[in-house]
Prior knowledge:
By secondary structure, the protein is α+β, with helices and mostly antiparallel strands. The chain has a domain at 25-63 and 72-117: Alpha-Beta Plaits (2-Layer Sandwich). 40% of the residues lie in helices and 26% in strands. A 4-stranded antiparallel β-sheet has the order 2-3-1-4. It comes from Pleomorphomonas diazotrophica.
Amino acid sequence: MVSFSPSAFDAFLTEDDDTPVIMLNLIRFQPDGGRDRYLEYLKMAEPILARFGAKILFGGDGLPVLTTGEARAWDAMALVQYPRRAAFKAMVDDPDYQAAFQVGQSAIADIVLQPFKRFASLT
Length: 123
């Protein structure tokens, strides 16, 4: 089940909202057709993302991990750019997105969502 950490989500939303953020999605699919349902979710989500000024920068299937240590292999990943943190919050609260996400949630066995912002020196 996908759920937000309330404290992390609140902290994310209260920080400066003046630059775009990239959301890293690391995904492990349900074994019973999860990948296909996730692709269906992406098709449903793309026009909703666009309404909030967001876009999928990359999505793809995972390959074997090349490093040693505690690395875990993921089935897939997606990078989604949001113009502001508030756009992410507004999208998550949107009824159309909530409906689409029911499909996505049924596809996911495990997920990590981690937002990133650009290095100040690269802007």
